[in-house]
């Protein structure tokens, strides 16, 4: 009996409410309301922490780290999705609860965050409520204005049916004069197009005019200008001759059009005029090409294009001094060598000893393991990349901040020209200079 009484008393004590203004009571009220500090809410995990220590423990958890890895793959997608969801919830609340009334933006936001499962603003592309309100104004979703109390918003109702009726009303409001003026403008535009086509088609074809002509009666007609002979109109089409047997490699001509058969003389004359104009244009182009000599710039451009095609993609050529960059081969790494010949993979090199004397044995090294070498100022180099590839030049100066140099070309059509801004990889030292 004593045990039963103790159990009942414990159950009664547990069921009693906490005293007012105690930490337990405050905690219960916060949990019942569903709102806690936004700074301790994780949007990716959708977890609300009660204090800073709990939030810190959550950020160090394995589940939170997995969510961060997922977010790092496509951060723009997550931010865009959260922004769309937040915007939909905010505008729906504004439209349903406030309608088209002018209301304080912060009041709408306070109503929105009362939902425990709402999307938090710190997960969207708008960092502040002011930024959101200004964006709504720019997009034409709301009418916004700023006062001493803050930003006010007014939702703009956009009903598709209402917009359609408004457009119809605008069309009905057009006066008869405006409609007639529009019709005249369309006719004028159509007439200009027809005139342009007629001018392009030519005025005379084989000495005959395309325009209207006077109908002349043959001699011997009766009095009053009336012909005694009836006018006959032949509507029969000419039958095309049977096609001959095709010979090997003989092309089949397309079927004749009504204009070619003879049913429409005007269309046939227009086609002949087009053919004649096309032939004249071709003849004029041929004469211009024959008379016009090529300029020096065109000749240089063609020469550079030929050199570019002949040189290929590799920058290596015999006679260059290069440096080997191969940490896997300590005996080669950071050593200079002379290119003896090029190979499909790279080049065959003869390494230089400390006295700059070539060794006898040649080694093949991949192109990816080689880099260019710059001589002292005034030394000879060869341009290995760019528009002047293959040209000999003299090194004039270095721009160490930009990793570039200035050279003077010594051969070719641009001999004596100074070229600046060439990268270190575009020039290479020549052996023997």
Automatic annotation (TrEMBL):
Family to which this protein belongs: Belongs to the KIN17 family.
Recorded GO CC terms: nucleus
Gene3D superfamilies attached to this UniProt entry: 2.30.30.30, DNA/RNA-binding protein Kin17, conserved domain
Species of the source: Macrostomum lignano
Name the record gives this protein: DNA/RNA-binding protein Kin17 WH-like domain-containing protein
Keywords associated with the record: Metal-binding, Zinc, Zinc-finger
Compositional bias segments (type: Basic and acidic residues): 160-174
One GO BP: DNA replication
Taxonomic superkingdom: Eukaryota
CDD domains according to UniProt: KOW_KIN17
GO MF, one example: double-stranded DNA binding
Region (Disordered): 160-180, 195-228, 267-300
Pfam families reported for this sequence: C2H2-zf_KIN17 (PF25095), SH3_KIN17_C (PF25092), WH_KIN17 (PF10357)
Residue intervals of the DNA/RNA-binding protein Kin17 WH-like domain: 66-189
